[in-house]
Design brief:
- It is a single chain.
- The chain is α+β, with helices and mostly antiparallel strands.
- It has two domains: 13-53, no CATH class; 57-193, Alpha-Beta Complex (Nucleoside Triphosphate Pyrophosphohydrolase), CATH 3.90.79.
- The protein contains three helices and eleven strands; from the N terminus they run βββββββαββββαα.
- β2 and β3 (45-53) form a beta hairpin.
- The model has no long low-confidence stretch (mean pLDDT 93).
- One of its GO terms (cellular component) is cytosol.
- InterPro entries: NUDIX_hydrolase-like_dom_sf, NUDIX_hydrolase_CS, NUDIX_hydrolase_dom.
Length: 201
């Protein structure tokens, strides 16, 4: 007999019973590996559940006052090729995500924006942790000073139209998942703003 939603047992989360640090790279700022002991809702206990501790970060899709979108073309070690990228970086200890987004935008591009739209906060890996992504859309951005970034990669700053941004996303030119996610969510937000009152029928 099929249960209706009201008859189903409420879902429960897993419990962390213990955690053990098994690897720390350098001072632990960029990577710590832990083994967790977790208990499932049915009482089953799983030992040695790998867990990755990496820094939280921000990614920002930037629309200028002229309705162009700021992007970088750059190399990334894990991609092993060139990729389009959005602005972003790691949060400093105790830093608010929005303040980090404002700081990273100014450092990497020299732009500031007055309108900031949160696009969500997401765990990167649903089973292993691996940091949290805070995504934003910054609108009405204007250049105020030369960029002062400390990124290791060489970067080429591009100004794309909305159509060019959407085409690049469809072609897979944003080759890092949080970047592609941020662009898709930003384009979705802008499209929803343009819907008639009441949205889709």
């Amino acid at each position: 007999m099929t249960q209706t939603p009201s008859q189903q047992t409420p879902l429960q989360t897993w419990k962390t019973l213990a955690r053990e640090r098994v690897l720390q790279v350098g001072d632990g700022r960029f990577l710590v590996v832990e083994n967790h002991t977790v208990e499932l809702p049915d009482g089953q206990v799983i030992a040695n559940w790998p867990w990755l501790v990496t820094p939280a970060f921000v990614n920002v899709v930037v629309e200028t006052a002229e309705k162009k979108f700021l992007c970088f073309r750059q190399a990334k070690y894990a991609v092993d090729s060139l990729s389009l990228a959005v602005a972003g970086g790691y949060l400093e200890e105790g830093e608010d995500p929005l303040e980090a987004a404002r700081r990273e935008l100014l450092e990497e591009t020299g732009y500031q924006a007055d309108v900031w739209i949160p696009l969500g906060s997401y765990v990167v890996d649903g089973n292993r942790g691996n940091g949290r992504a805070h995504l934003y859309l910054a609108r009405g951005a204007r250049w105020v000073q030369p960029a002062d970034a400390d990124d290791l990669e060489e970067q080429e700053l591009l100004l794309l139209s909305r159509a060019e941004l959407a085409d690049a996303l469809r072609r897979g030119e944003f080759k890092v998942l949080p970047w592609a996610t941020a662009v898709a969510l930003a384009l979705l937000h802008i499209a929803q703003e343009e819907l008639p009152a009441g949205g889709l029928s």
